[in-house]
Amino acid sequence: MLAQRELERMILSGELAVGSKLNENGVARMLGISRGPVREAFRALEAAGLVRLEKNRGVFVRQIGVAEADEIYELRAVLDEYAGRLATEQASPLDVADLRARIDRMERAVASGDLDTYHDANLGFHDRLVELAGNAKMLALYRRLVNELSLHRRATLDQSGILAVSLGEHRAIVDCIGSGQAAAAGRLLRDHVLASRERMHQNVRPGQAVPLTTRDRQSA
Questions:
Q1: pTM (2 decimals)?
Q2: Cα–Cα distance, 55 to 46 (Å, whole number)
Q3: Given Cys at both, which of 9, 12, 81, 131 links 190, Cβ 3.0 to 4.6 Å?
């Protein structure tokens, strides 16, 4: 759906600010379409965790508080551990090679200081890993949680030294997958997510609301 894709792009890039109200007529005029597809896009974006629909008030770009983010990280840790176990059982040698190639791309991006490319490759790595688990319901839930944690991840990964640590964690995960160590791969993925949560707490003041913007949709 064109309207959904364009609005998602604008939200995740920060063009549509956190907490801003989305006017149905205004969006329709901006995109040059009728109001019907816009309404459908709003519903889809709500399901994706990017907007909230308030009765008699309208549609707003979501804002996530630290307490909610904490709960999402906890759920992500459980999902990622399970996905890591399943992916290890399902992954072929070609799949493992593909995961390694994605990490190589991340490493090249770090070396060149290209954070946007790093974030995109990071997202692709984790999304592919959950795809390999072969559970469509889990993948859909995972993608919603990724959207909801986007700004957290951008803030923590931009810290000095964190990218190198993250790369090492990714390589250790794939080493376990490649050698068939399902339980170990799952534990490393869980620890990877919980480390991200800890970095969030180190960089967010108590009570601070964490808005949902930026193109980095997370992926520990």
A1: 0.77
A2: 13
A3: 81
Q: What is the pLDDT of residues 120-177, one digit of tens each?
A: 899 899 999 999 999 999 999 999 898 887 744 544 555 557 888 889 999 999 999 9
> Which domain-ending residue is among 46, 61, 76?
61
Residue ranges making up the domain that contains 44: 2-61
User: 56 and 71, same structural domain?
Assistant: no
> Which amino acid, residue 50?
L
What residues in the chain have per-residue pLDDT under 50?
A: 151-152, 154-155, 207-220
Do both 52 and 69 map to the same domain? no
Whether residue 119 is found in the same domain as residue 156: yes
Task: Identify whether 161 is part of a domain.
Answer: yes
Do the Cβ atoms of 189 and 84 come closer than 8 Å?
A: yes
State the residue for tokens 């688990």.
Answer: 133
